[in-house]
Amino acid sequence: MGIGGQVFDAQSVPTKNLVVEVGGKLDGEALNRVSLTGIAPEYGEGGYEVYLSDTPRESSQALWIQIRDLAGTQLSDRLFFDTVENCERNLIIMNFVQAGSRELIRYFLP
Asked: Is it the case that residue 107 has pLDDT exceeding 80?
């Protein structure tokens, strides 16, 4: 089970070298994972992928994802998401798009 997608700037250009952090609890166990945009080209030029578990597990708003720059500056809020215990739906796709000139990044699910 995992989460993947891309990060885009305000002009919809894929962005590389941003830190993708995923944290929270899955089945009561702490989870903290990190990835970098641009390392998973199967999602696109600004692609990332984060491994969550070797089996699909159901959770409701227990995990979050956040984007930071390489200096650690927060570029998005922590966005909480759900997971399902279904082998056919065990990959969450989440893309981030910069909103205007602010350093706020919003997300959407394609």
From this structure: no
Q: Give residue-wise pLDDT tens across range 9-36.
A: 888 899 999 999 999 999 889 999 999 9
Total residues belonging to the chain: 110
Whole-structure pTM value: 0.87
In the structure, what pLDDT confidence band is assigned to residue 100 with cuts at 50, 70 and 90?
Answer: low
Return contacts of 91-95, CB within 8 angstroms, 24+ apart: 91/1, 91/2, 91/3, 91/4, 92/2, 92/3, 92/4, 93/3, 93/4, 93/5, 93/43, 94/3, 94/4, 94/5, 94/65, 95/5, 95/6, 95/7, 95/8
